[in-house]
Amino acid sequence: MVDVATAREQPQATPTTWEPRIIGFLCYWCSYTGADSAGTARMKYPPNVDIIKVMCSGRIDPELITTAFANGADGVIVLGCHIGDCHYISGNHKTMVRMPLMRRILQDLGIEPERFRHEWVSAAEGEKFSKLVAEITEQVREIGPLNWPQLVYERGVGHGMDLKAWGE
Amino acid sequence: MGANGKLKVGMYWASSCGGCDISLLEIGPRLLDLIKVADVVFWPCAADFKYQDVAHYPDGYMHLCFYNGGIRNSEQEEVARLLRKKSQTLIAYGACAAEGGIPALANLKSRAEIYDVVYHTNPSLDNRDGVEPQPNVETPAGTLEIPTFYPGVLRLKDIVPVDYEIPGCPPQADRVWEAIQAVVTGAVPPRNAAVKVGCSGKTVCDDCALEKKLTKIKQFKRHHEFRPEPGWCLLEQGVLCMGPATRSGCGALCLKAGMRCEGCYGPPANAEDQGTSMVGALGALLDAQSEDRAQEMVAQIADPTGTFYRFSMSSSFMKAAQ
User: Which residue numbers of A have CB closer than 8 Å to B's CBs?
Assistant: First the structure.
């Protein structure tokens, strides 16, 4: 999954040029519309979240979250409809179980809790969305870059490693 | 074929417990059939072969080589490269070689932390001088060299191209025999691609005979806390069975004996990351009506990372790099 060769070639991010790169998984019916309403209302929020629209937050396979981090995301947010509002009735009930579990696993794997956020944002909560994005962007900016592919290379646990480098 | 028309077969153990070598013997009388068509030319666990013997074989001398165990130190890496050169078909045998296995759980800790426990703080230790192994030691007789301990456990395919993988801890004897037959007769053509053999594309749940009543989990329980109702799905009774997120091939052996599936066959065919696959499965199985209840139930799971990635940490997307 992690392409070690590319990670090695990429120049190390420096504090002056680095901007947090956050992946946002937004459910189509509420949160994406909420983000849309923030845009229509011309609210200002940082451009650091790359939004991926999914039909339901219950469709977000936890694998997508680890894939995002493993490929260099600095943070991940998962937004869905409030409990009871799911367009598919119980889709977000699955999210409600998976995300706290993912939070624990990510912490065990060494991801700071601030890098991962799971919230409910309804179609009318454009303001909540813009505040949330501003908040997580600031939090991630404070902790600094994650650069997981680089960590995998430095730690020597990736695919295609030249292990002679560790033969001290 | 060799001079006597027989196949040359080898087996090596790296970072493993030795169970894989025993599991190969578990094919029983069929071993005699194997011996009829094959000569063992390298098997440190069962016969006295040296690395030098292998180094003197011509390249591609071995038709079939089973490599069990992950790569934990420089010796294992060196032998992996040597065996790749000397074998026509290299098979990653067992969970450790294929997915990292139990040893790869140590990837959650750094080398310093591992050394600290193993050589200093373990209560059963008597290491007053605080000795730690050094790769090179000067003695009056000359420099002694031991293998370097790597900072993480790697799969065989992280180091050299692997033709086939037989998952399982250990691989189940009937599946091993099928896999040997398939590989020897050339029934599984794509090589160099770490194709999984000796297993099926389904999950353990598909093979499990326990009844699924389609009820949801009310509370997580562990085996020592209650007596499960026989014949009823353990996961539905609250035992964290890895069945939904584990490749089948074993025939749900543990479940037949009343034990939960621990996930030794690795992630199922349609997923690459076993832990997140299990998180995904649990999402639909909990009887949690409110967010608070969901968090309460999730908090009952003792060690989600160690349980869900027990055999597949080296294959996980994030690889425990910190």
Answer: 1-2, 58, 61-63, 65-67, 69-70, 83, 93-98, 100-102, 104-105, 108-110, 148, 151-152, 154-161, 163, 166-168
